[in-house]
Amino acid sequence: MKVFGVEVSGITDDTRSVCAGSLFVAIKGANFDGEAAAADMLGRGAAAVLTQRDLGLGEQQILVPNVRLAYAQAASEFYGRPADKLKLIAVTGTNGKTTVATLIKGILEGNGHKCGFIGTTGYDTGDGMREIPGGLTTPKQDELYRLFAEMAENRLPYCVMEASSQALEQFRIAGISFEIGVFTNLTQDHLDWHGTMENYYQAKKRLFSMCKAALICIDDDWGKRLSRELAEESLPVKTYSIGEVADYYAVNIKTFSDCVSFWLSDESAQKTYPVRFNMPGAFNVANSIAAIAATAMLSERGLDADNAVAALENCKGVRGRCEVIYSGEFTVITDYAHTSDALEKILTCIRSFAQARIICLFGAAGERDSDKRPLMGKIAAKYADYLVITSDNPRFENPQSIIDNVVAGIGIAVPYSAFVKREEAIAFALSEAREGDIILLAGKGHETTQVIGALEEPFDERKIVQEIVRGGVSK
Q1: What percent of the chain has pLDDT over 90?
Q2: How many CA atoms does the CB half-sphere of 32 hold within 13 Å?
Q3: What Rg, from alpha-carbon coordinates, does the chain have?
Q4: CA-CA distance, 1 to 443, in Å (whole number)?
Q5: Quick one: pLDDT at residue 242?
Q6: Nearest Cα residue to 108 out of 235, 250, 291, 259
Q7: What are phi and psi of 54, to 5 degrees?
Q8: Which of 65, 117, 380, 398 is most enclosed, with most CB atoms within 10 A?
Q9: 298 has which bridge partners?
Q10: Lowest mean pLDDT: which of 68-72, 213-217, 335-339, 428-432?
Q11: 347-369: per-residue pLDDT in tens?
């Protein structure tokens, strides 16, 4: 097939995937220089090189102003513009993306509409959930459009996906038209990449230049600003909130250990709906409102708020999001919380139903925003009774240095222990648990690996907990 006038057999920026006829995308990244490898890729059989800098490769190079944008355009053309055949909904924000996207999928399918999925927990192109190669929330351009093509081939009318700030900044989803873009919130994260919160915000905002309509949570100042700016740019905007009046907002919120209930007010329809959702925590009130409102905004047959509310009640919890993985003398919950805001939300949720102590086990990722580490320590100390600080994907960074950064933020007299090896930390937390205690394992959630150095080692907290419990927890 011809892309940019060149007959190619595939498109990739990964030197390991280059074969005869490939279009090699030469990207100069932080860890690997694709431009330096371009000539070697031609020697390996690549048909041409896509580049934004003249590499002296003559007719075998395709010069473009923005190589990442051209990568998305080339992948779209190679797979036959599959995104044009789907009705796409995108969810962005710091926290809640996975839950909101999963619930939108559940509501659509509960109303008889097949829906694809792309997000942190994997992808579904019509044949069930699978893991995304490389573990990215939003896959790279070639993989993303391959997934769209599978959905189109399987005749899925809808796809809901998470849009990460890095993906938006790297033009992985450039040129796509979304029916609706959902913004959940913005709290400190990824500043190792973006540098400032303003840059982080602008990366998120980029999504809405590709959307026909926006659904914005106005429970933080960033959401309020975004809704105002998008309205000034004449994009149709709906708002939602759990704390103030919006187009969709909650009243009479009640939280329980296994669910939330509330009344949803739909201002445009001048109606209220009783809602029950089978996950605990006030933050899941916001997540469920987002899912109901987003599907109702599609204005398709059978997708009004009444049917969305009914379908939501049948939605199951999301893997790795306030998920109970052991219940006995004590309870063990795993959650993906890996920012101070997410930790605060999950810990206040657990505090609302905890009958005894909360033991919080967590760490901070290596080679990521280091400024958030003491903030995580401060929040955990505020809401938990005992802290177990450990590793969470240290990568090439010294795990003990990361732990020291976290400990520096504790600031108050709360007992804690620290273990570099996360498995040892889990064993210790289980041994410390008393009757009625709740252990929160924060940071890994759905993940089943631990990244240490260049190695991605198997690490499934569910299996580790079960093995320790079966072997007998030593006191």
Answers
A1: 72
A2: 10
A3: 23
A4: 43
A5: 95
A6: 291
A7: -65, 115
A8: 380
A9: none
A10: 335-339
A11: 998 998 888 999 999 999 898 88
A 10 A CB-CB count for 166 gives 15
Two tokens at 2?
A: 């011809």
Q: Which residues contact 400 (CB under 8 A, 6 or more apart)?
A: 420
474 close to 429: Cβ distance less than 8 angstroms = no
39 is written with which tokens? Answer: 């000539």
Q: What is the dihedral of CA 332, 336, 342, 344, to 10 degrees?
A: 10
The side-by-side arrangement of strands in the sheet containing 10-12 is: 10-12, 22-25, 48-51, 61-63
Q: What is the mean pLDDT of residues 272-296?
A: 93
Instruction: Indicate the SS3 state at residue 370.
Output: coil
Write the pLDDT tens digit of every residue in 185-244.
Answer: 998 766 666 689 899 999 999 999 999 999 999 999 999 999 999 999 999 999 999 989
Distance between CA 145 and CA 152 in Å, rounded? 10
Q: Which pair of structure tokens corresponds to residue 45?
A: 């059989």
Residues with Cβ within 8 Å of residue 470, at least 6 apart in sequence:
none
Dihedral, CA of residue 200, residue 202, residue 204 and residue 208, to nearest 10: 180
**How far apart are the C-alpha atoms of 217 and 289, rounded to whole Å?**
10
Distance CA 328, CA 171 (A): 47
State in Å, rounded, how far the first CA of the chain is from the last one: 65
CA distance 433 to 244: 39
Q: How far apart are CA 394 and CA 365, in angstroms?
A: 5
Of 237, 242, 231, 227, give the one whose Cα is nearest residue 288: 242
Amino acid found at 151? M
**Residue 169 tokens, joined:** 């900044």
